[in-house]
Amino acid sequence: MSGAAADQVPTRRADAVRNRAAILDAATECLARDPDVSIKDIAQAAGVGRVTLYGHYESRAALIEAVVDRAIRQSDAELRAVDLSGDVREAMARLISVSWDLTHRFGALVVAGQRELPSETFRALHEAPAARVEKLLMKGRKRGAFRTDAPVSWQVMAMQSLLHGAVDAVYRGELQADKARELVTSTVLAVLEPPRLA
């Protein structure tokens, strides 16, 4: 291989890495807003052609799977970094706040994942976060900080529904994102509050 040709190989590889990153970033942003966004629109947002996009991801489903996989890994890393020590209500508030940020960031990507991916792949998006919440809920129940008159699984589902409902409200323009974080956190903590004795 000539020197000129050898120099071109690293350049092509660097371009490919940049293109792949740009496609994933654009797909995440576009799918978070609209689960039905077209490949054409994603390619345009990434600044590449459809041929280039399909050179990295052979189908829409393959692209969505890559985006969801990255979202799962990023979400897990950010949630694992949340300090869950100390007062359980304060720990829950921190966990809800980060959960809101992630849910808002990835938004309708959840819907796209449900439509395009196998159910077991999609379930992985919620398994680790749900287990983390369940563990904190059990800890709070033992300390008398959270109510015990409803199943833990129901409380987790209610929290997830509230998060996704708030994201929908933000996308519809009915709620500001910062205000939504406060409302979701305060509402969840109010729902978990043990009932007062008469």
What does this structure look like?
With about 200 residues, the protein is mainly alpha-helical. The protein has 2 domains: about 1-60, Arc Repressor Mutant, subunit A (Orthogonal Bundle); about 60-198, Orthogonal Bundle (Tetracycline Repressor, domain 2). Helix content is about 80%, strand content about 0%. The chain has 9 helices and no strands. The protein has helices at about 5-35, 40-45, 50-55, 60-80, 90-105, 110-115, 120-140, 150-170, 175-190. Helix 4 packs parallel to helix 7 (about 120-140), helix 5 packs antiparallel against helix 7 (about 120-140) and helix 8 (about 150-170) packs antiparallel against helix 9. It is elongated and about 65 Å long. The termini are far apart. The mean pLDDT is about 85.
Number of structural domains: 2
CATH superfamily of the largest domain: Tetracycline Repressor, domain 2
Question: Count of helical segments?
Answer: 9
* Strand residues, percent: under 5%
Total number of beta strands: 0
The average pLDDT is 86
What's the architecture of the largest domain, going by CATH? Orthogonal Bundle
CATH fold topology of the largest domain: Tetracycline Repressor, domain 2
Give the topology string: H per helix, E per strand.
HHHHHHHHH
The structure class reads mainly alpha
- The CATH class designation of the largest domain is Mainly Alpha
Which stretches of 5+ consecutive residues score pLDDT under 50?
A: none
Terminal residue distance: 85 Å
How would a crystallographer describe the biggest sheet?
A: none
Q: What is the subunit organization of this protein?
A: single chain
What's the alpha carbon Rg, rounded to whole Å? 21 Å
Write down the overall geometry: elongated
Give the fraction of residues assigned to helices: over 70%
